[in-house]
Structure formats: C-alpha cells, structure tokens
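hey m, so remember when u said the tokens were messed up on ur end? i reran from scratch. heres the input so u can diff it against urs
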Amino acid sequence: MSRRQHRNACQLSRQFYGEGMSASNHDHDRPLLALLIRLLGIAGFASMAALIKLASQRGIHLVEIIFWRQLVTVPILFGWAMMSGGMAQLGTQRPRAHFVRALYGIAGMICNFGAVILLPLAEAQTINFSAPIFAVLLSIVLLKESVGMWRWGAVLAGFLGIIVIAQPGDGHIPLTGALVALGGAFMIALISIQIRDLSKTDKPLVIVFWFAVTSVVLFAPFQPLVMQDHSWGDWMLLLAIGLTGTWGQLLVTVALRLGKVSSVIVMDYSAMVWATLFGWLLFSAFPPTTTWLGAPLIVAAGLIIAWRERVVAHRRFSDLRGTAGT
C-alpha cells in the first residue's frame, strides 16, 4: 500500500474521532471546556429521552414527537441569531452538506426515539454506546481500512456486550427494540462524521438551525395523519422535549467544535447514570443484572477504540512530519 493510500484508508475513522485536523482547527480546541459542555449536552439528551418515553405513554405519535421537537428549536435559534448579529449568522455555503446531515439526523431520530419508546431507558442508552464500533466497521467497508488486533478485539467485545444485554430469543427486552437501537447507534457514527466536517466551516448555530428547519419541512405534511387533541400537560411535555433536545444538540455540537471526539467521548457514558436514574424515578424500572454485565463491555470497547485511533493518528502525524523533513 502506498503512503497516500495508507493515509486515505483511515480518513473515515479519523473524521469520527476528530483526528488529523489542520493547525487552524487545533487553534480552536479547548479540551477542558469541551468536556464540560459535552457533559451538559448529554444531560440534556438524557432528559429529552425520558420525556419522549413519557409522551409515548400518553399516546403521542412518534412522528408528532419528532415534528414538535424540531419545531420548538427553530424560533429559539432564529431569535438567538437575531440578537447576535442578524440573519447573516444563519448563512451557509454548504446547503447540500446540510441537507445530507438532515437526512442522517432524521433517520437517527427515528431510530433513537423509537429505541427509547420500545426499550427501558438504560438499555436503550447502553446500546447507543456502540456507535464507535460502527465507526470502525464503516472504515472497513467504505475505505477498506486495515484494522488491527486492538480494534477488532474492541468490536467483538462490544457486540458481546450487546448480546448479553439483548439475550436474543430469551431476553427481558424485545429483539425489535434492540435492532432499532443498533440502527440508532449506526446513525450516530455517520452523524458525528458529518457534524465534524460541517464544523470546519459552519458554526454550531448554523448546523443545528438548518437541521431543524429541514426536519420541520419534511415532517409537516405527515402531521394531519398523526396529530390529535392534546391536554395542556401534553403540550407542556412536547415543549419540554423541544427545549431539552435543543439544549443537548447545541452543546454536543459545540463540544465537537472545541474538542476531538476521542477526547470528549468519555462524557457520553454519563448518560447511563441519567438513564438509570430517570428509569427508576419515572418508570419504576431498574436495569437487571444482564445490563450491568453487558454495559462495561460496550463502554470498554468504545474507550479502547478511541484510544487506539488517537495512538494511530499521532503515529501517522509523526511519520508524515518525518517524511516532510527529509
């Protein structure tokens, strides 16, 4: 394999983990601030997940939940933009990339919201942690990357953890729910790559705003088919879903602009604490032993993959620097 092929082979996984950036991008890195922002963003997403489950139990359709979750975001971000410099704050030179990101995001919302509805919160969240595993598989399939022992071991350990939790054929959770959650994790990998790429040219405000606008436009025609009369409690629940979702999405996007995914990903695992707490307080559900046995395998897989990608990226950077000096 030539040096150029070797460099390109790891492009996808480096994008997912935020490595291999230019010096100008490194100038924007604020690792400690990125960790804190990511932690707060994950708390927002965990709160939204609990509210989505509550809304579903009150009979609100998934399509309607997604519509209102995104519609609430639009005026919030529009007002923010007007107060911070006007409509110019929302401009972009990459409408096609934003449209692709929106399609990824919509598919991800359908899967991840569906998983929250179909599964206990802790199990749905734990399976989401398998996103780094799918990043490795994407790099193999799309870029023919050669994956070594460390990452293959992490992939196998992660999927073993999923099997322990799901227990296909004899588990406490429905297999359909587990498959939907895995689809959501796969989309998280794609979305993270897309957001990191968009963050090189566009601010988090722009990325989140155009995702929300595109989602609202695409979901609006379906609302007459699923909307129903709601109580004030239902409307407050839908508003809270939109607010917590906007809070989480903005902060997670900002964190990806300020730090590498390989650095901030550790904060994602705090979602397990929130999911367990909300599941216990709101739904009287506590994760069984199988979840506590499988979760460490999935978390360890993600951390090993992140560590290995960081090592490979640093080694590659040193090799390129040495070549440039010859």
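this time it looks ok to me. The longest helix spans residues 289-324. if urs says something different then somethings off w ur setup not the seq
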